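Researcher: Structure prediction, please.
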Amino acid sequence: MYHKRKYVPLNPKKYAGDPSNIVMRSSWETRFAIWCDKNPSIVRWSSEETVIPYVSPLDGKIHRYFVDFKIETVNKKTYLIEIKPKAQTIKPQGTRQTTKFLKEATTYLVNQAKWEYASRYSKDRNWEFIVLTEDELGI
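Model: Predicted structure follows.
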């Protein structure tokens, strides 16, 4: 799924940031960027331009969370959007001693911390934070 690439927008004036430096980290993000770029209901959008500090449950330190997308709509609503595989949104099940379980558990815990901070950040601004998976993206 990982495929870092540059995205060149069809409507660069809609992009809130440097439209010559838009980096997509997955085909799912690219699909969402194309949707934002072409959708007439989206007046402005950005990718990894919104940075939210959060405390990691792994080390108790402050880290920076670069939210995948920020979109602003014609009806004046703003959304922060995270694109993730559904598996990373569900608490992992399995044997606690396996490397696979530990990696999945770590990913889940960090994601949950990021999303909690993003939800609060959004709520403070009357925005909405949404996590989209392959289900919502129709993949």
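Model: The first strand starts at residue 2 and ends at 7.
Researcher: Thanks, that helps.
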